[in-house]
Amino acid sequence: MEQMDQGASGPALGDKSDAWLLGRARELIANVQRCSKSEQIEIIETLDGLLDETQRRGEPLLVAQMLRAAALARIISVSRAEEAEQQLDEMLAHTRRHGATLLQADCHALRGRRLVLSGHDDAALTEIARALALLDDPPSQELGLGRRAWDRLLSTALNDCWIVLNQLGVYEAAEEVITRAHQAVRDSAGPHEITMQLMNRVKMLLGWGLRLERIGRSEEAGEKFRTAASMAIAVEAPFAESLFPRKAGVAAVDQVASLAAALAFAAPSEAHIDRLRRLRTTPLFPFDKPLLSIALARCLESIGNHEEAFELLLGDRDDLPDEHYQPSIRIGVIHELTRFADRYDLGDPRAQLADYAGALEAELWSMRESQSAALDTRREHERLSAMHGAITQQAMQDPLTGLPNRRALDERLRGYASSSVSEPLAVALIDLDGFKGVNDLRSHADGDDVLRIVASTLRDSLRGDDIVARYGGDEFVALLPGAPLAAATQAMNRAVTAVDELPRHLSHGVTLSVGLVALRTGERAEEVLSRADASMYQAKRQGGNRIATATQIGDEGQTAPQDDPTSAVDEPT
């Protein structure tokens, strides 16, 4: 494995481009799959540094992809898989907030991978159903992605779903998913994506073939093995240009255990033995060791070394930790051990071992059928739930800014107005100063950009529980539950200042005029908005870029004297 670049952390990252950070993360993920535990920890720490830098920059798509990398490295390391939950929770909230559907689906898939490692197969299948429901009808474009980048994210999410389905032995669904993953990038895939696709299919076909053998469908199993062998040969060219750690000038089948195993399964012979023995001493991808052991045992069997093959399988069976190996592959080692014991009169007691393996395999096959049916049911349920949620969200969301629209605002405000709970609620009506000039002197496209940046700034300036909605045109409304007028004034001051300090090429000089009022007991939604509107016009009459607050006694629309146009003196409520 290459030496980790420690110089890629710290202040120097600030000089790197977004593309460099993302490329570095992909390189590290390719490396983490075949390295020592200490090197895996080093990679995780490096990825955490990259994540810190991307969060400092704040570009939503880059942050989501780096959260994925940080979580995935922990899942692959196995020993630190539980730590991935923090990144996955953050990734799920982030992707939902920014409408990144593909990465949201991938987050569910990664949760499935983590759950499989901890033995929660049913929960893992639920996460995959959620992911596939999102991917069954993904948006045609999101976050301004180009087609190639969109295809790559779709393929990555499908691959992560495939990994879980393959580990659970749901091969029919796994084949459907990996075929979709291949189709997504077939016109734009680079060498690394092609290599990963082919290697994944090889592993799936080998596991599938072993399962078919165990239920007596040997002819179908042979077809799977032969297809896997042809793919193992086809991966040679792209592997030489992939991101996977490799030795230059050495064939892929001499470096990757699953590829070597595929050739041996298709035609077991003495020709494969030296290669398989050597690969057993090298760092292996997850789940490769049992495949390698069975392949080597069959090659030893082909030259009459039955006892050596039996001892090899016996040792490897005892070395497989239950919690980290997929049941289908583990039972494959036990089944192979039973076959040798029965055929060559090795080990004792043979009959009991054969009965145990047969009973266990029958149970696993029944479980596979149940899982496959459950997946279809859950997938349809999640698809319908996602469709209903999307329709509801579209009806309540402003398409330009992504904020709640007037309908959503009216519903929420009516709820607060009719609530029997005595809790303060501040209502701010916000209008953009100078926005008409942007539309008239520049373009409506520039105007739309200004509305988006102001919406984002308002949302980021307020608390997580506060609600910012687009009221119409260049007007917004903010609801600040639990905030007395004094606290709400401070919060809105932050928002006014944040917009005022935006770079001019983003804001084109617009500022905010804010009318701020407190909801009165028994006051209707339209009444409180009318008072906020009157206060907003008072702020405009005083020159804008300020807040005007209305008193509950005296004239509506009064404002306190202000020395600083972006500050306000709180009035009694």
Features:
disordered N terminus, 6% strand, 573 residues, mainly alpha, Alpha-Beta Plaits, disordered C terminus, five-stranded mixed beta sheet, 65% helix
3D architecture notes:
The structure is a single chain. With 573 residues, this protein is mainly alpha-helical. The chain has a domain at 406-549: Reverse transcriptase/Diguanylate cyclase domain (Alpha-Beta Plaits), CATH 3.30.70. The protein is built from 23 helices and five strands. It has a five-stranded mixed sheet, sandwiched between helices. Strand 4, helix 23 and strand 5 form a beta-alpha-beta unit. Helix 2 runs antiparallel to helix 3 (60-77) and helix 6 runs antiparallel to helix 7. The protein is elongated, with a radius of gyration of 30 Å. The relative contact order is 0.05.
Q: Specify the number of helices.
A: 23
CATH topology grouping of the domain at 406-549 = Alpha-Beta Plaits
Please compute the radius of gyration using only Cα atoms. Answer: 30 Å
Whole-number average pLDDT? 84
CATH class of the domain at 406-549: Alpha Beta
% residues in beta strands: 5-15%
So what's the overall shape?
A: elongated
What's the story with the biggest beta sheet? 5 strands, mixed
